[in-house]
Every structure is written in C-alpha cells, then in structure tokens.
Amino acid sequence: MKFPSIDLIFNGCVDLLLFGAKIFGITYNEINVYIFCVIWPLFTLILLGCVFQLLRTNRKLRTELFKKRT
Fold first, then answer.
1. pTM exceeds 0.85
2. Cys bridge to 30: 8, 25, 26, 64, which one at CB 3.0-4.6 A?
3. Sequence-distant (≥ 6) Cβ neighbours of residue 21 within 8 angstroms
4. How is the chain split into domains, by residue range?
5. pLDDT of 1 strictly over 70
6. Secondary structure (H, E, C), the chain
C-alpha cells in the first residue's frame, strides 16, 4: 500500500536539505550527516539535561513546600 502524502513529505524534506546544502556550499550527504548525526543528537542531550535539571529543581521545591506545611 502506497501513501502519496508520505512521498510528498519525503520529497519536500529532500528538497529542503538540497536547498540548505546549496546555501551552505556543501553536499546533500554532508548536511544530512551534520543535521542527523551531529546537531540532532547534541540537541537531544541538551534537552535531556534541561529535563533532569527541571526534575531536580521541582523535587527540591516540592520538598521545601512539604517541610513548610508540616
């Protein structure tokens, strides 16, 4: 079963990568590696760090609030 909308989205993404590669003067393969093997994993690690920091802060604030109530 073939979904034309998936092909349309894929082709749009490829066109966007080709456009970005042309702007930066690099190849399609290079921009693909930079985005999906470098930038995306770094961004994910940064976001995970932010989540853990927020969890730690939230836990600390809940503990302080609980101590004030007792």
1. no
2. 26
3. 27, 28, 30, 31
4. 4-69
5. no
6. CCCHHHHHHHHHHHHHHHHHHHHHCCCHHHHHHHHHHHHHHHHHHHHHHHHHHHHHHHHHHHHHHHHHHC
